Amino acid sequence: MSDKDLKFNSKTIHGGQQPDAAYGAVMPPIYQTSTYAQTTPGGHKGFEYSRSANPTRTALENSLASIENGSYGLAFGSGLAAIDAVVKLLNPGDEVVSTNDLYGGSYRIFKQIFEKFGITFHFIGMQSIDTIESHINVNTKLIWVETPTNPMMNVIDIKGVSDLAKKHNILLAVDNTFATPYLQRPLDLGADIVMHSATKYLGGHSDVVVGALIVKDKDLADKLYFIQNASGAVCGPMDSFLTLRGIKTLHVRMQRHCENGKAIAEYLANHPKIGKVYWPGFENHANHEIAKTQMDDFGGMISFVPNGSSYDEAIQIVEKLELFTLAESLGGVESLAGHPASMTHASIPKEEREKSGVVDSLIRLSVGLEDAEDLIADLEQAIG
Ligand SMILES: *Cc1c(COP(=O)(O)O)cnc(C)c1O
Question: Model pTM?
Fold first, then answer.
């Protein structure tokens, strides 16, 4: 049976994997080596130097390709290193269209690193295809989509953007960190590149920082592989091993993230002291119809705004939480709470932030795998 015929729940475990060639180890060993013996110059078993390739990383890269329905996976030292590699496909003078409420670090690398190399970025609301099209010109070479967006949980129509990108011959990259391939498969919807911060749900246990790119097209894979090797932001064998181990339970974890996410989103929506709750599973969510079409469920990321509350009151709530840890990041087995305005999105100027809804009192939850009743009790005591 070819890997391509496997269902998702089997791909997470077996996709792209074979027992190790040396001793039949079921989990790929951690090949903690920088180099490989050659019998004659160039006479090697497929590996010469671990920046170029390492067997543990290759096992992870094959798994990534399989779960995203791609043909090629590339693993990096962080999500941002993966993004860095994508932007390096471009040249000075090129333009990029992206969302206005994307991950703070993505905004920072675009604005503060790549603008000075002559690449222009447009940060816009991507809810309307016409709006996106109005920002496209002959120099536009890349559309960067993140969906659901962080932290506002807007959902962008991947198929719609992909049709537009194809019409104008522009690359489409989708940051699939929040949804994971358990919920949404951008390559199937026409995207050219899927990007992950595997630090989050793919790793799933808050113990690694890893990034990933997955593509279908061989030429594009070759170009990205060239950049990966030439720039060198690869992930090490130990982190590759841990991420691969995480992926093997992705489907089981995501199922519970979705169940707990739903329970908590509903609890918050019915709470008299909570104003807005942003979660794409609600029928009254602005993009619920698109979410229903392109996602299989709605995930465990939720943002909310306590009624009439201020910066300080929001901080009080996150400080009072006990089972939810106050921390950056998301997607691990443990529940986390964050205050985007002072944490993940502090690098975005206040006016920019508020334009997209990231007000001072917004709180973001990454709902983990604890018992939902315990999580609700914790929110109850913190919100009061
Ligand atoms: C965390 C994150 C990134 C950056 O990934 P790192 O692994 O932290 O470098 C990019 N996009 C999203 C949506 C993220 O949550």
Answer: 0.96
